[in-house]
Specification:
about 325 residues, Rossmann fold, eight-stranded mixed beta sheet, binds S-adenosylmethionine
Length: about 325
């Protein structure tokens, strides 16, 4: 098909099922050809102009060229040869080449690197620039893949993150797991810095409730204040001032019971689960709850007692900490 391109995306380690689901939510026609625990490749048409279309990804690369991976330096020289006939993007202001092999940036043998740089410089009528924000070309090798890839890194605007907040990439995955619908009333009752409600703004939505018992600790993203669809509240998640069945999707990250003293976590989880089940629309209601692995059972039992039974659990790693994404719907009678 004309304009079909291959991309390689890197995502938060240990979140592969969420990354795959997020990709298919963003690009329903994408065909995933390979994946490991923190990267995947896919083909799609039309081409992606920037990385903004894939907010769950840490990095997005268009595959310019690929060779079978053997010794790194020999493979880089072969990439240079292949790159002579590859399609390059227009490059303004110079470029830089780096190698990311098996999860780490590594040095290439100067002769091999220079061979690749020379081809890119010719093909893009540009030059190597060692500093500043310029077009990057990455040589990427993954231990589970037999290929070595030359990728054009797609640009994306910088994202800020408050202390203790979930990353924008993880929020994008959790929001995608709720299968966003334009008519959704969305709620995060443990919103903290507002990172999940801010991620939900990337999709059309009817209304967003951004609620937390304590909203003063970290400033909310400005986008939330500016948007008339966003309702910012200070509320206890165990007693929310919202009507029964008034919410279509809840995506939330309750306290993990590590930094905040919660005397009896089982009781807390039961009270919250009962309240979330009350709020969710009986047919449309979906819940995506991120729990530390340590308190996962408390949530599973509490949600089952609240008749939130249908769904699945996905084990993920958040900054190296085992966690579970618990997805539930109300029991259908
Ligand atoms: C793990 S943090 C959420 C972090 C958030 N996802 C972010 O990215 O910034 C848990 C949040 O729950 C809030 N919280 C704790 N107990 C609460 C309660 N009973 N009702 C509402 N919010 C509560 C805390 O103030 C904290 O902001």
């Amino acid at each position: 098909m004309a304009g079909r391109e291959t991309y390689l995306v890197q995502f938060v380690a240990g979140t592969r099922p969420l990354a795959e689901a997020s990709l298919l939510q963003a690009c329903p026609h994408a065909q995933i050809s390979w994946a490991d625990e923190s990267a995947l490749t896919f083909e799609v048409s039309p081409a992606l102009p920037t990385a903004e279309a894939l907010p769950f990804a840490n990095n997005v690369f268009r595959v310019v060229s690929r060779v079978r991976r053997t010794d790194l330096d020999a493979s880089v020289r072969r990439l240079a040869e292949h790159a002579r006939s590859a399609r390059f993007p227009p490059v303004r202001g110079g470029f830089r080449v780096m190698a990311h092999i098996d999860g780490a940036l590594v040095a290439m043998e100067p002769g091999a690197k220079s061979a690749l740089e020379t081809v890119i410089a010719r093909r893009t009528s540009s030059r190597v620039v060692s500093r500043g924000s310029v077009q990057e070309f990455w040589v990427i090798g993954r231990s589970g893949s037999t290929d070595l890839v030359l990728g054009e890194r797609l640009s994306r605007s910088k994202r800020s993150k408050s202390k203790g907040a979930l990353s924008a990439e993880l929020c994008a995955m959790l929001v995608a797991a709720s299968r966003p619908h334009p008519q959704d009333v969305f709620c995060d009752p443990f919103a903290g810095s507002g990172a999940l409600p801010a991620a939900r703004l990337a999709y059309p939505v009817k209304r967003i409730v951004c609620s937390d018992r304590d909203l003063d600790r970290s400033p909310l993203p400005r986008d939330l204040f500016r948007d008339a669809r966003v309702d910012i509240r200070v509320d206890d998640a165990r007693r929310l001032t919202l009507d029964d069945g008034s919410v279509d999707a809840i995506v939330t990250d309750p306290p993990w019971g590590e930094h905040e003293a919660i005397e009896d976590y089982d009781t807390f989880a039961r009270e919250v689960a009962t309240e979330l089940a009350r709020l969710l629309h009986p047919r449309r209601g979906r819940l995506v709850l991120l729990s530390s692995r340590r308190v996962e059972q408390a949530w599973q039992q509490a949600l089952a007692s609240a008749d939130m039974v249908e769904g699945q659990d996905l084990g993920v790693l958040i900054n190296g900490h085992p966690a579970t994404v618990i997805m539930r719907r109300r029991r259908r009678n």
